[in-house]
Amino acid sequence: MTWPDPTGPSVTARRVAAYRLGFDRLAAPTDAGDADVDDLLASDVAAGVSVDRASRMGRYLLARTRFFDRVTVNALSRGVTQIVAVGAGYDGRALRYRTPGVRWWEVDRPVTQDDKRARLNRLGIAPNGVTFVGLDLSEGDLASALIGSDFEPDAPALFFAEGVVTYLEAETFRKVLRDVRSLATPGTRLALSLPRSGPDGTERARFEEGVAALGEPALGSVTVDDSEAVLLESRWRAVDLKDRATASGFVMAAPVFAATNHSVQPTIGRIGRFVEDTLSRRGGATLAAHLEATYDIDVRRMRELDLGVFRIEQADGSAWIARVFPATRAPRAARADAEILDWLNRAGIPAERTATPDPVSVHEGQPVLLTDFAPGRHPATKPVLFEELGALLAKIHGLPGDTPAAKRLGGAWHHLLLDATVSDELTAARKLLHDARHRVQSGHGAHYDRLHDALDDVTLPSDLPAAFVHPDFVPRNIIRNSGGGLTIVDWSGSGVGPRLASLGCLLWSASGHGPSLEAAVRGYGSSIALKPVELEHVRPAMALRPVILLCWSFATGRSSVVEAATSWSTMRPKLAKAALRAGALLAEAT
Hints:
Blueprint: H1 11-20, H2 35-45, H3 56-77, E1 82-86, H4 93-96, E2 103-108, H5 110-123, E3 130-134, H6 142-147, E4 157-161, H7 170-182, E5 189-193, H8 202-214, H9 227-233, E6 236-239, H10 243-247, E7 250-255, H11 270-278, H12 287-295, E8 299-306, E9 309-314, E10 319-324, H13 331-346, E11 360-363, E12 366-372, H14 383-397, H15 422-435, H16 445-457, E13 466-469, E14 478-480, E15 486-488, E16 495-498, H17 499-510, H18 516-525, H19 532-535, H20 538-555, H21 561-589
Parallel strand pairs: 1-2, 1-4, 2-3, 4-5
Antiparallel strand pairs: 5-7, 6-7, 8-9, 9-10, 10-12, 11-12, 13-16, 14-15
Helix pairs in contact: 2-5, 14-17, 14-18, 15-20, 16-20, 16-21, 17-18, 17-20, 18-21, 20-21
């Protein structure tokens, strides 16, 4: 067989365009898209090319086209503002599905791109919103090329490589995966089409024969059957698809955000790095073996209860809680946690108890703190509970501060910032929100500004009375046992901080449960009278944690900026009314 000139425009891409001309395509989600212009380009590219759409290859390309159309439309529907076509060829989706506020990048060999751009110019088609990146993937650095063309790594993106992996050597494909992963942020997705090998390789051979008939020979050695391992080594995980899509060799992947060593290509975006440094853990599969070797125990079962929090059931019937902290936290900080727990229990505070005399170890560079498992369940959120919690919080705030364990600064929410003050927490929240500005879609700037203003509105004076505080003193961190006793858990981030911020967190939690607000104030005010400066700032103290949670949720991709801002707009008047009532009750208690 005589192959086309490899230095010329892609013959395969021309044949694919010819096939697509006869396919029914998915409609654009907005009126901005122009299917006619896409078809005009395809007609020009396919002039003189004849194809058999009823052939095996024709049926495959129909399925492939529909899959990547659906992937693109879904991305646009969920607000993705960056779409990158790797090995774009003569693909016209940037025309067919163009959307206001969405940028497209098309990556391909310069010779094919030059031909495509010349055709667009001759046809009078303006590729508005499209950035052409001329790059031979086997030779160039895809990540640097995209960053150099104003790709924003903190904004969610869709990367798709349709039909191109077949023409990449395995190591080139791996490099592409690593490059694209370095640009990923929460909400980014990667779509691929890969060949199948089949049980005896015949399926792959048949596929490669069909590929060769399109124009160029297949070079790749990675198939959908072994893609999972290749994806994982590049920090991607496959997303479940319908069996029909998987059977056709289509793959959808999401980025894995995990703490990494220096041998891994680093994440470029600031939001992605925050998630890796603060919200990721590694070594879960080997944690049980680590604990067995370190403490000479027999682990019967292990279950993750929350991020980095594992219930460890032992063969002798006892149970521990293992808290695995990020590798960015020093072991000495976890040892300080253990000292604080011991001090609290000696002072009569029902905190969780350390499980062994030396309860801190290091697993894969991460500190691990062991405490006894507290049997029971979260109590019902009724007024009687909040009165009890108010009195208990007052007891914590009344602890003497003349011991080393009681002198650590704290109060920040540990899913945002570890071992820090409330003031530090606000600073970190503002930075995170600033870093997330690229996640805001066109037209949604007012919602982003509302979150920014909300953070400014919850600033507390730096000279508020201080005490030892639990940074998240709410019912979900309380366990009631069968005898009615309470255990307070999750003391990460505890330390000396403004007592009003800690009380505000409890009052915010109580404000959504009818008369529970009055009960919480009654319990707290029975032994502590707030200062006038504290009474002046009850509202921002109650709003502090929910505002930070909303900003954090948006920045880390758990909600959109519209959802977060709308939640705050709904919550704000109710919270202000509750704070006014709480302030009056606290003033009466003085």
